[in-house]
Design a protein that fits this description.
- By secondary structure, the chain is α+β, with helices and mostly antiparallel strands.
- It has a single domain, classed as hypothetical protein yedk fold.
- It contains five helices and 15 strands.
- The strands form four sheets. It has a five-stranded mixed beta barrel with strand order 3-4-12-11-8. A three-stranded antiparallel beta sheet has the order 9-10-15, with no helix packed on it.
- Strand 11 and strand 12 form a beta hairpin.
- The protein is globular and about 45 Å long.
- The chain starts with a strand and ends in an 18-residue tail after the last strand.
Length: 221
């Protein structure tokens, strides 16, 4: 499960993903401890040249009112095929969550040890997700939200946990955002073995407190 990540200097992803509209980033400040419930930068397959700020925690589309909907921060890749609504979302409501790396924690006898995980030698770690752009029928308020897809952990992370966010690099990330992508290829990406090296290093356990948001959180210990 992914419940914390970093998102800073996001404007540098513009060239990488071919972004043409990043106006919403004017309202976004570097976030070194992004947590569920916050509005964070994503790119959707329906608007792949724009960075939007969506709320982390999918407001389930099968609920009639956004305000009482159950939020999903993560969704397991294996469960998507078992839920018709999620299968439909996979066809046309895919997104990339733009991060600078995410955090994992390990419990020990001496407390929690936190780690920062990122794609090695890349400025960004792009995570695959699903999004919902809906309207609360009672208030007319837009309820834009997203969830991060998780899959089986790579060998470098198995000592920490059994799963990890689905991370996409290069052409795989662009294909995930393409409206012309085939269902078979998208399903293949859900379960493909990691095609990239990751860098895992210990950082401050301060990331466990969502109120802490400092550049020092990403510093290697």
């Amino acid at each position: 499960m992914c419940v914390r990540y970093a998102a800073y200097q996001i404007n540098r992803v513009i060239d990488l993903l071919g972004i043409k509209n990043c106006a919403e980033l004017d309202a976004f400040k570097d976030n070194y401890n992004a947590s569920p419930g916050q509005y964070l930068p994503i790119v959707t397959c329906q608007d792949k040249h724009t960075i939007n700020l969506f709320k982390w925690g999918l407001i389930s589309p099968w609920y009639k009112t956004g305000i009482t909907a159950a939020n999903m921060f993560n969704i397991e890749a294996a469960k998507i095929s078992k839920r018709p609504v999620l299968r439909n979302m996979l066809k046309s409501q895919r997104c990339i969550i733009v991060t600078s790396g995410y955090y994992e924690c390990k419990s020990t006898d001496n407390g929690q040890i936190a780690y920062h995980v990122k794609v090695k030698e890349e400025p960004f770690t792009l995570l695959a997700g699903l999004y919902e752009a809906s309207v609360d029928k009672r208030t007319g308020e837009r309820m834009n939200s997203f969830t991060i897809i998780t899959t089986k952990a790579s060998a470098a992370l198995t000592d920490l946990r059994a799963d990890m966010p689905l991370t996409l690099v290069g052409d795989d990330a662009l294909y995930w955002l393409s409206e012309d992508s085939s269902v078979d290829k998208i399903n293949e990406l859900l379960f493909h073995d990691a095609r990239h090296e990751i860098d895992v290093y210990e950082v401050s356990a301060g990331i466990t407190d969502s109120r802490t948001n400092l550049p020092g959180l990403i510093v290697r210990i």
